[in-house]
Design brief:
By secondary structure, the chain is of the alpha+beta class. It has three helices and eleven strands, in the order E-H-E-E-E-H-E-E-E-H-E-E-E-E. Strands 6-11-8-9 form a four-stranded antiparallel β-sheet, with no helix packed on it.
């Protein structure tokens, strides 16, 4: 398998302390995109902290939110490096001294509104990155009643297409990810946030 989900890889109480600051600074940006597999050419469910130089989507990063999330991102860098070394150690690659460079960092908010309920099936960086990290953040209990903002019973989690099923096609795997769960994706692994 070219992915790994670690339950509670980040302490959820740390994320609970961080989340009100994220809410305060979260400012979704309208992004025009090539549409991907789902042919969705425009969305406004993500706030970008870091963007690829000259890449898609082209938007101005939210530097205040980047500053607030920097300790979390540093932890993600460290965890990704450990996973990546383990994942590729037997492939003959020279992996000592690898450097983690984030080229696209964003926070996505899902709602029941059409076009805001998922980050549809895609491959990160058009398959041109070595891997990705997805961290599940808390359900928003700060801006309204939990039952209004909860996705319980209505989805949530992450779907990954990896490995092969009995027909030789990519196997669809659904993970019920919750606050603090960390997912590592190798290069060009199809996935979808729900």
């Amino acid at each position: 398998m070219r992915h790994l989900v670690i339950k509670k890889g980040i302490q959820s109480n740390y994320l609970d302390l961080l989340f009100p600051k994220i809410l305060d600074l979260f400012d979704p940006q309208i992004v025009d995109y090539n549409g991907g597999v789902a042919n969705v050419k425009r969305w406004k469910i993500s706030c970008y902290l870091e963007v690829m130089e000259g890449g898609i989507p082209c938007t101005n990063p939210n530097l205040a939110l980047l500053s607030v999330c920097s300790p979390l991102l540093d932890t993600c860098n460290h965890l990704f490096k450990l996973w990546y070394k383990q994942q590729h150690a037997c492939n003959g690659k020279k992996i000592d001294g690898i450097k983690v460079e984030r080229i696209m960092t964003f926070i996505t908010r899902y709602t029941p509104q059409p076009g805001e309920e998922a980050l549809l099936k895609h491959v990160d960086g058009a398959g041109k990155v070595d891997g990705s990290v997805v961290v599940a953040l808390p359900i928003d209990r700060w801006s309204g009643p939990e039952e209004e903002n909860s996705f319980e019973g209505h989805g949530g989690g992450l779907t990954i297409w990896d490995g092969k099923n009995e027909n030789g096609r990519s196997k669809k795997i659904d993970y019920d990810t919750r606050s603090g769960d960390v997912t590592f994706l190798d290069r060009a692994v199809w996935h979808q946030g729900k």
